[in-house]
Fold these 2 entries.
Entry 1:
Amino acid sequence: MTVPRPLIAIVPGALHRPNAYSNFVQLLEQQGFEVLTPPLAVASDSETLDKELTYVDDVKNIHAQLLPLLDQGRKAIILSHSYGGLPAVASIEGQTCEERAARGLSGGIISYVAACAVVYPVRNKSLMGDDTEFQPTPYHRIKVSAHHAQLILPTYQFHTFLNMHVQDGLVTVTDDARALWYSDLPEEEGKEAFGALFKRQTWKSFTVFPRYVENDLKIPKTYLLCENDQAIPASWQELLVKNGSFDTVHRLKSGHAPFRKVPEAVAKILEEVWKNNV
């Protein structure tokens, strides 16, 4: 009997629209996967974006697309990119096959795959595993203190979120971020990708800590470590992998946009993840 392929739900990185992954989605569809690309609730072009929105609102968007299909008995793989690791993991809570079966429900999430994604080591704490929270002025270039940079990455001068500005509870990126996020893409492609980003994201989406983290997951976890990433360098990703106790790690020759740089490699890994969980 032919085993149906699972759904793949892609949770976007910060400021990324669903169509940022359109070419990669087409590749997966050619392989026979059905793909969901729920939009971030916390990002928009609008100056009136509700600054109170957090990752919890992103989870609502994920569930709005995913849960009706799980209720039909479908299975799913959650794939996150960068910031998307936060809402992606939160969306899995209570929705694995085992957890749903305990409630008399069919379907469920069978695996989690993180592509150069953020990983929170413990519940209700920051990425550093403590209570550190940025307190920006009304217009402030984000920095991480040297103290905390040394705690998490002795060799890395933390500049990830870095080329962002915060004003009135909303974050915008400076043009400097383009060279970090799309460092290994052709210049015109990088400009196109950067120009297509949402203009704003809520500050709270970065500062509200999760109630459910990678170490809570009871399903297989795979990390795609992007060796040429200039936004979240490989040395920090290695720490994230350790903090999240990932079962499998694949190292990719890519910057922070593996879905553009090495889409075939990512698609092949997803095929393996599915076959290993049949």
Entry 2:
Amino acid sequence: MIRISKIIAALFIGSIGSFFFLNNLFNLESAYSVVSYVVSGADQPNYKIFGPVSSSVSLNYLALIIIMVIEFVIGLLGFYGAYNLIKNRKKSLKEFNEAKKFAISASLLGMFFWYGFFVIIGEGYFQMWQTIIGLGSVEGAFRYGTICAALAFYISINND
């Protein structure tokens, strides 16, 4: 039962990354608008951004592409990790634990991505917390980063 729950956890990670990638892909202009709004430093009522901001279409699309590629990789690693866990679910403890590496990698990448990109860079540097659009993204990123961290811990413990 514990092994099955770890497979489900890996599927959750794959789903999180994939859903965000697909939502951005199918709403590309909206995703671009949000990224552009944040990195331009528009509507900063309290703290002004102390460093450079971007109004470059190319740089803003590059930022969005980086975000989407990482979301895609999280999804891919999560699903591939689940596949490896399914394939090794009836094997020895050692083999099952070795099969966890892609699921754990997906979880850790998700944690570092959502905390690093959105909480540290977005909230810390671009002051996203000052706007409704930015705050929603930061709050979501905190949730997803926390979920990824908890699932990374759960998948990695050797209680199977």
